[in-house]
Amino acid sequence: MKTESAAREDAVLPLWVIKRTQDAEGDSTSPLPVGFSYIIDELSGQLFEPGLLFLATTQTNRDGGFKKNTVDAYASDLLDWTRYLTRRRVPWNKATWEDLALYVSSMDRFVSPHHGRYYTERTKTRRLVPITAMYKWAPQHIPALCEHSPYGTLFDARKAAEFLDERRRSRRSKVPVTRDDADDEEIPLYMNENEVKETLKAMGPEPRASGCDEDEESATSSIGHLGMELGLQAGLRVSEVVGLQVRLFKRYLNQKLIPGAFYRVGKFRRKGGERKTVRMHGVLVQKVVNYIKCERAEVMRGVQADHGVLLVHKTGQHRGEPLRTGTLQRRFAKACMAAQVTMTVSKLAPVDGDWTNLVVEELLRPKYTFHNLRHTFAVWRYYARKRDGDTDPWKHVQEELGHKDAATTMKFYLPVTQDFEASVTDEFIATLNADAGVYGMEDDEELDEELADAL
After folding, report:
1. PANTHER family, from UniProt (predicted)?
2. Are 263 and 280 in contact (CB under 8 A)?
3. Kind of pairing, strands 354-366 and 37-41?
4. Among 121, 141, 171, 423, which residue is least crowded by beta carbons within 10 Å?
């Protein structure tokens, strides 16, 4: 007959995952807003109740509104912590400050599944925020779940200062060896011509000017392809891409566009909350116009109130809804994998949940993130301008990226420009110039003034 401890060893561990609340038809009594993240065991359907109650109590306002990015980030951090405790077979309400210290230390040996690099000290510190906040919140709001906890558990707030002091001492005494992951600045990664070409193919078809529903190819949405082009050819961040509005392109819908000319788009909100314009070459603007007139018009037909966001889902339960940052980032990651634009990373993993017995796993990951398209735009545009005779290409790149200071732009991208220059050919630069409209550039000042007045 098995002992109680042996039975626990044989028990199937929970498979914690994140899900979001759905808009249940006819259900107006749901306690959570639509799209709210929560943690659940995919095997049993059991909720991670303290995490759900903590987020619902602290992250929603009186009207049921919430900041999606914050809730998603907190849920992701709590998920990782919950999985860690589960593998070590530590109940959440028995976790001690020592357990938390071991969890933080474990991140020194792991790489992020998102970008394939080691976690920075800033990331480790940020991950502690929702975890410590939940344990500080719990005794006052769910005391029944916090009873009979041993000494030294995370409910003991007096230990928090001691833990943080020890962490600060550890960080000060840490000596970097093979990597310098404490630096906030990273060397920007950029894609080469072939990687871009193959990834764009995997992102789906480009927007069509007509015949949206004439063949099988048109059943695949062009939002992935267009979204990648906006990041690559205009240097936009993923949040800026999914936040673009149709109204920004309204004046170009019935205008003859010149492929070698630049057109002003904006003003719209960019990083830091500032409203700025961005220049897009005629080829890119034409693709946006094609998408608005064809695919988007077909998708939004019959929708009572158009929200005005440019990129929308073409099919499925989210048809007509705005594309989200996470969706576009995942599409790009999958496209990199499909195009074999990948890299191999090493990750330590426990054997059968035993964290004292670790093995090294070799994992295939996307080589780039969506933000690397912005880096690619900067490096490519710099050399296209330089080869075309621009005496101050850094100034141009700074303006296009929306940086306040050209020195900041130069400092960040200078380390990679020499490597890039060694692989550049005249034919490649000619292609960049043609695609980006670097020469034969035309700006319509009157239209810019009209737009500024309208805004």
Report:
1. PHAGE INTEGRASE-RELATED, PROPHAGE INTEGRASE INTD-RELATED
2. yes
3. unpaired
4. 423
- Interval 345-371: pLDDT, tens: 776 666 765 656 677 778 888 999 999
Report the candidate in 64, 54, 32 with the shortest Cα–Cα distance to residue 141: 54
pLDDT tens, position by position, 160-210 = 666 665 655 555 444 333 333 333 345 678 888 889 999 999 999 999 887
Tell whether the torsion through CA atoms of 114, 119, 123 and 128 is positive or negative.
positive
Contact at 8 Å (CB) between 274 and 208? no
With contact defined as beta carbons under 8 Å apart, do 103 and 84 qualify? yes
Task: Give the span between the Cα atoms of 116 and 107, in whole angstroms.
Answer: 13
Q: Concatenated DSSP letters for 235-280?
A: ---HHHHHT-BGGGGGGGTTSPPPTTSEEEEEEEE-GGG-EEEEEE
The average confidence (pLDDT) of the chain is: 76
Q: How far is CA 147 from CA 55, 80, 144, 159, 296, in A?
A: 21, 24, 6, 18, 55
Inter-residue contact 237 to 332 (CB < 8 Å)? no
Domain 185-455, architecture per CATH: Orthogonal Bundle (1.10)
What tokens were used for 418? 């020499």
Residues of the chain with CATH 1.10.443.10: 185-455
- pLDDT interval class at 122 (50, 70, 90): confident
Q: Which helix (H) or strand (E) holds 169?
A: helix 158-173
The one-letter code for the residue type at 126 is: R
State how far the Cα of 159 lies from the Cα of 11, in Å rounded to an integer.
33
Q: What angle do CA 382, 203, 313 make, to 5 degrees?
A: 115
Residue type, 139: P
